[in-house]
Amino acid sequence: MAVLDHIEFDTHETVAFCRDAASGLRAIIAVHDTRLGPALGGCRMLPYASEAEALTDVLRLSRGMSYKNALAGLPLGGGKSVIIGDPLRDKTPALMRAFGDFVERLGGAYITAEDSNTAPQDMAEIASRTRHVRNMGFGPEDNPSPVTALGVFYGIQVGLQVLGLPLSGIVVALEGLGKVGMDLAERLHQAGAKLIVSDTSASRVAEAVARFGAEAVAVGTAHRVPATVFAPCALGAGLNADTIPELGARMIAGAANNQLATPEDGARLHARGVLYCPDYVVNAGGVLGIPLPGETLTMPQRMERAAVILRTTREVLDHAHQAQIPTNVAADALAERILQQGCRRVAA
Ligand code: NAD
After folding, report:
1. Residue 141 confidence (pLDDT)
2. For burial by CB atoms within 10 Å, which of 14, 117, 135, 318 has the most?
3. Where do the domains of the chain lie, and which CATH numbers do they carry?
4. Which residues are catalytic?
């Protein structure tokens, strides 16, 4: 398996392959960029079909974290880690502690956090071996999802301003009613939007129908329904050569990471006249709400920090409009510029 020549390798500083026979740990830690500070990014555990699939995922996600942290104005670089395995079958405290040993060996270049299929108790196990862990508390203020949902809501507001449309009365097609999606649905409902929703969980769909008067559509069809906004809040890579021609919305803003299957899909959206609010710009609320070293933040203070997204989304959309380029290209260019020039603090 080629690593240095991998199509997603980009300018990664370190890619560490971690193996611990005693606990069965197989993991990859990717440190993309530490020019702005230590590389912060979550640790996810998934039963990847192959090591190659895990490598592609971690490389893409860690670069995304560099860009997300840079645009959000944080003094942090970008990294990510993946543990290869079935979280229900293979996850043990010993495995998480072994992972913590590998994080420790990187000497603080990488800071880990919760992500898909890792939880506060896993972070506590990791923290027994390394101090390079964030957001490991068990309190309600340690849940990043409400801050992420607020940030996505702000992204939607800014996108609609650019289109010259009000939020009240518009239709939003929302895919995924999980920790972020359900909270976002509530905010949109309160702001007067009409909701069309899909989720693989029938109970979550039933909840949104009951609470918000949402209309339910079949899984895999939310992107097609006529709407002003499509908000992907489930899985990545949903915007691709097959789905983009089918889109029923004029604008896209959602929480899912890596929504574009390839960077060319940004150009496809641009050519179709669909306003894409880049994922890592609008879903930065979670990372913005994480306290920096030495800080303690209440939930209201964390929520306040999401307001930065009003400004960064506007900046990206304005730049794309002025330069007549796809919005994903505009976001990457702004993030690259910050990486080269050094961290900037973004006032909300
Ligand atoms: P979650 O696991 O709580 O929710 C995901 C939801 O999507 C679940 O309800 C699941 O049933 C549903 N789902 C799965 N496959 C689906 C499909 N094919 N169609 C429709 N629904 C489907 O996750 P979350 O924390 O709400 O995060 C949602 C997305 O946002 C993820 O991609 C995550 O990586 C990203 N994200 C989350 C945060 C955060 O703070 N939680 C921050 C940044 C990015």
Report:
1. 74
2. 135
3. 14-68+75-138 (3.40.50.10860), 145-341 (3.40.50.720)
4. 80
